[in-house]
Structure prediction request, 119 residues.
Amino acid sequence: QVQLVESGGGLVQAGGSLRLSCAVSGRTLSSYAMGWFRQAPGKEREFVARVWGSSGVTTYADSVKGRFTISRDNAKNTVYLQMNSLKPEDTAVYYCATGPRGSGTYDYWGPGTQVTVSS
Prediction:
């Protein structure tokens, strides 16, 4: 069974940094796509960043480009989201997800971790 568990969320001041982690079990990261998404109160869930399977190619939403970095440690089967220069509008529940590479879809999701950025 595939399981994802996020950690690293918390409260940070604007301009600060956080690193989110997503530990994956039941699936080998290098063979699948991994993504980070977020959902703010009253808003729909939105794409944040993605890293493709074996190629390691990354894609980012325009709103986080240059501030966030997605990476993975295949040995630990863990994906990270380094978030720098955080803004109050980055406040949301952050979710990691995994899916078949190249499909653009995600079939397993973590429960989420709260990130709150104060002004």
Remarks:
- Residues 25 and 117 are 30 Å apart (CA to CA).
- The mean pLDDT is 95.
- The chain is about 0% helix and 55% strand.
- The two ends are 40 Å apart (CA to CA).
